[in-house]
C-alpha cells in the first residue's frame, strides 16, 4: 500500500483524485452487488435459462447469489470502509490512528538498532584501532560493510572506476581513524571543474595529460608533454606545480597510481575536458543516512583495519605554565 499520509503532492488535484476514486470504487462495488442480487426463487419456480447453451447439454441458469456469499461480500466492503477511516488510503487523509509506513519502518529499525547496540556495547568506548584488532568486531564490521558499502566499493573494498580503493594507503580525505569515521558519517564531495577551454581544447588536454603522466614517471609522449608543461599552469593552482596535490585542501596527487577515473592518457584528457564530480553520501542518522553511531564506529574500525588505514596524529604534549617568580 502506498502511504499518501506523509507524501507531498505536487498538486491538491491528486489528493482529491485518489479520495474520489476510492469512494467511487466502494459505491460501484455496492451497486454491482445489489444489481446482481435477485429475489429468492419461490417453491417450484424455475430459474431463468441464460443464452447461449453449449451442445444442448451445458446450460447456465440465472440463480440468485448465495446469501452467505452475498453477506460476506457486504462485510468485506464495510470492513474496507472501516479500514479507510482508521488508516491512510483517502489521498492525504492520515486516518484516525495516525499510522504511517515510515513510522512502522522506523519503529522496527529502532528495535533492531537497540538490539545491535547491546552487542556493540563493549566496543563503544574503545578506540577505533582497538576495535579493529578484535576478531568478533571485525566480523560484525565486515557484515555491515557488505550490507551498506560493498555496492560501491566492492566486496573486497578495492573499489572500481569512480569508487576509491579502501585497502591502499592513498586517501584523498585522510586515512586516520577519525578521518574515516568522519567520511562515513558526514559523507564527502569532490569536484574538478571542466578545464578544456583553459588548456586549449582537446589537443591541449592531450598535451597536459602527457605532461601529467611524465610527472609520475609513467609512459608518455615526450613532445606532447613538453607542449603541455606551460598549459599545466591552469591546473597548478590546485594540484601544485609538481602535481603532488594539496592534501590539506583534498586536491589529489597526480603523480601516484591512485586514479579514481582512470590514469590513461585518454582518461586524464577526459577528466580535464569534462571535469569530474563525485561524492559519498552521508551515512549517519544526523545527516539523513541510515546508520547510527554504533554502526559507524564499527564500520570505521573495519575499514581502517583493511590495510590502508593510517595512524592518528600524535597529540601535542601539554604545555605547563611556569610559576611566576617573585
Tags for this model:
single chain; 326 residues; mainly alpha; Cytochrome Bc1 Complex, Chain D, domain 2; two-stranded antiparallel sheet; elongated; disordered C terminus
Give your account of this protein's structure:
The protein is mostly helical and 326 residues long. It folds into three domains: 1-38 and 62-99; 106-187 and 281-304, Cytochrome c-like domain (Cytochrome Bc1 Complex, Chain D, domain 2); 191-279, Cytochrome Bc1 Complex, Chain D, domain 2. Helix content is 49%, strand content 7%. It is built from 13 helices and four strands. It has helices at 12-35, 67-86, 101-124, 128-132, 135-148, 150-153, 177-186, 196-199, 201-215, 222-231, 233-239, 265-274, 293-304; strands at 48-54, 58-62, 188-192, 276-280. The protein has a two-stranded antiparallel ribbon with strand order 1-2. Strands 3-4 form a two-stranded antiparallel ribbon. α3 crosses α13 and α9 packs across α12. It is elongated and about 105 Å long. It starts with 11 loop residues before the first helix and ends in a 22-residue tail after the last helix. The model is unreliable at 1-6 and 315-326 (pLDDT under 50).
